[in-house]
Amino acid sequence: MAKKGSLKRAPVVEAPRKRKIEEESEESVEESEDEELNQDDEINVNGLIDDEASEDEEEYSEEEEEEDSEDDSDAEFNTMLGDEPENISDLESLEFEDEPKDNTSISDKLSNVHIRSLSDASDKQTTYIDGTPRVIKPEIEPVYESDDSDVENFNTIGNIPISAYEEMPHIGYDINGKRIMRPARGSALEQLLESIDLPEGWTGLLDSNTGGNLNLTKEEIELIRKLEINQSTDDSINPYEPTIEWFTSKQEIMPLTATPEPKRRFIPSKHEAKRVMKIVRAIREGRIVPNKPAVDEEEEHNYDLWGDGAQDNVDHIMTLRAPKMAPPTNEESYNPPEEYLLNDEEIAKFNEMEPSERERNFIPKKYGSLRKVPGYEENIRERFERSLDLYLAPRVRHNKLNIDPESLIPELPSPKDLRPFPIRCSTSYVGHKGKIRTLSIDPSGLWLATGSDDGTVKIWEVLTGREVYSIRVVGKDNDEDHVESVEWNPDQSTGILAISAGEHIYLVSPPIFGFDIENTGRLKLESGFGFNKFGNVKKNDLNVNEDSDLEEEAVSNKKEYARWIKPSEEMIAQGVVLTVECRKTVKSISWHRKGDYFVSVSPDSGNSSVLIHQISKHSSQSPFKKSKGIIMDVKFHPFKPQIFVCSQRYVRVYDLAQQVLIKKLLPGARWLSKIDIHPRGDHLLASSFDKRVLWHDLDLQTTPYKTLRYHEKAVRSIKYHKGGLPLFASASDDGNIHVFHGTVYDDLMTNPLLVPLKKLSGHKVINSLGVLDIVWHPKEAWLFSSGADGVARLWTT
């Protein structure tokens, strides 16, 4: 036996049944452990020989030795060196034996050794087809260290639970389809003893494939032990390797690297300078406060011990609590007062209404006692809708502005300080049988002309309301026409009244002014017949470029847009001096300030919608070759050679002298109705059918300076006061007239002051039509209005 602490010999190959190696010469070796450590250069072959082989095996090996060839001895020796001993305990029972030092080489030592192989009992002896002996070795069974990753489990039952075989004598089938019998179980006493004296590696688990106990191997137990004591599980890692001192503690004279220092080590850093300047700017702007006193974050948290704790539950800044449901009211009581109960008509009306239009989502009912109240049938639906509102409806925090509402109202002067302006109806002019579409006041302010759908034009005395003159311009032949517009000539010495009815324009000199004025008017109208000859038209049409929506047009001398004819004897008897016949219905007329020109608008006439007529020469001309959109109204500038053309969406300003477009105003309304020009010429008012009144400052921009939304229906007319008073008014289909104060300052840096003054109501609304036209008195703060009720009214201060 080897002493404790001695080195064990190399692994020995035992081949008791394969072959036997005999030594021809035996040498005695002394047992000495000290000399054995020094025999590193010698090979001990004593371990390769089995001294305990039986005599039968020796005889068998002598007979077999002659048949074995010498060529296979090296291969057999290598195979035997690679085998492991079957019993490790045999290695522990042997000791290394020392041999005397010998200079004999290894090949000389092995030359005297003869190795014979012994056949294993498991080997099968057979021959090939040619008679050559053949040895069939047993099949190699893969072990844990094997690299056979495709090997299947011993039991091939698959995913079938092992409990399915509890009543059967077998627990499954192997790969060949043979039954795997259930392992024998000991008695209850043996099982009890086994549970008390647990074997090494016991887990208490059963192997589902074999039915036996599933125990841990020695390698697994050793791995668990290393994990428990925090040791490395890899034996190849040495945690106590010697330290390699790459840099010693001794100070070196020469540097380890000879790389020169970079230049950036000796110059200021630009990146640091940028960061410093960024901090400096933040300090200057106040975003960073240097030397700010530190705030003690660990302040004492004092709270009300007996409070409800609601003040402590402060929501996060991004938290939006769901709105609470409205508390129930008296009408939701099971015994509500009588005034909350609905009768049969109200219940029927409630059922006919849409659910979204109902004031409440239930019908109040009365019960005698609380125990008679049934379950609320709408409870599930209301809970469901409430849930939808909570998780689907977005929540938005509306920040309330702490602004005094009165500060938003502009500081306007009191209307009492802005008098005079019309406040009441003083005179009514009754006599027409149809709605009065238009009215006009003469330059003297004494006579009022009104035109109605009954086909007549009446002239009234302003102060008394007495009818002084009447003329019928729509007869039985043209009963479908209406009086669209009446306008007095601004020249007070002529007394000419222009009336448009259908396709005709009648120039009338009413016999109310006296012989001198009547004679002057007739002579002015009749003096132009000498010029009404073809080929003698003195004025050519305006030539305007495409950008200004006007194009050059070479008008033929013989082409006429309107005919100047003498009226019939019936018309002459009524005071009609001259008739101008146009192609389409004339909707409006507007005079030039000198009284020699007037412009007419025929929206249905296409390119010749706008015609400029001259009384002194009886000529008519169309300034536009092509009209964009439907023309609604046209006005002359008060003192400049300019014309304002109002279409449905835009207002264009043209220069008649230079024949160019000066400006295009964008009111922003859908459908404009009328326009009017301020007496100073630098402001414009526009009314629209979408209930708006727009004030344009021509010196500022093309969009409106102010938009007034006071009317409830379409605005029909808008007028400035031409007598120097800062007043303007608007008339609408809602039957109301709004009077405003509009001061225009001489200082161009000061905006106009607009102040609402009075709302005048008196006209009746008939067939959705209210006040159709208004006009200011030329000198006083009086306002005339006409409506669909067939009455004209005078509003005074």
TrEMBL record:
Keyword rRNA processing assigned to the entry: answer is yes
Where can this protein be found? Nucleus, Nucleolus; Nucleus, Nucleoplasm
State what this protein does: Component of the NOP7 complex, which is required for maturation of the 25S and 5.8S ribosomal RNAs and formation of the 60S ribosome.
**What's the name of its gene?**
ERB1
Protein name stated in the entry: Ribosome biogenesis protein ERB1
Q: Which domain of life is it from?
A: Eukaryota
Region Disordered: which residues?
A: 1-86
> Nucleus among the record's keywords?
yes
To which species is this protein native? Answer: Wickerhamomyces anomalus (strain ATCC 58044 / CBS 1984 / NCYC 433 / NRRL Y-366-8)
Q: State the GO CC annotations.
A: nucleoplasm; PeBoW complex; preribosome, large subunit precursor
Q: What are the entry keywords?
A: Nucleus, Repeat, Ribosome biogenesis, rRNA processing, WD repeat
What family is reported? Belongs to the WD repeat BOP1/ERB1 family.
Q: Which GO terms describe its molecular function?
A: large ribosomal subunit rRNA binding; ribonucleoprotein complex binding
Q: List the Pfam families hit by this protein, alphabetically.
A: BOP1NT, WD40
Domain BOP1 N-terminal: residue ranges: 165-422
Biological processes annotated in GO = maturation of 5.8S rRNA from tricistronic rRNA transcript (SSU-rRNA, 5.8S rRNA, LSU-rRNA); maturation of LSU-rRNA from tricistronic rRNA transcript (SSU-rRNA, 5.8S rRNA, LSU-rRNA)
Q: Where are the WD repeats?
A: 429-470, 771-797
What is annotated about its quaternary structure and interactions?
Component of the NOP7 complex, composed of ERB1, NOP7 and YTM1. Within the NOP7 complex ERB1 appears to interact directly with NOP7 and YTM1. The NOP7 complex also associates with the 66S pre-ribosome.
Q: Where is the composition biased (Acidic residues)?
A: 23-75
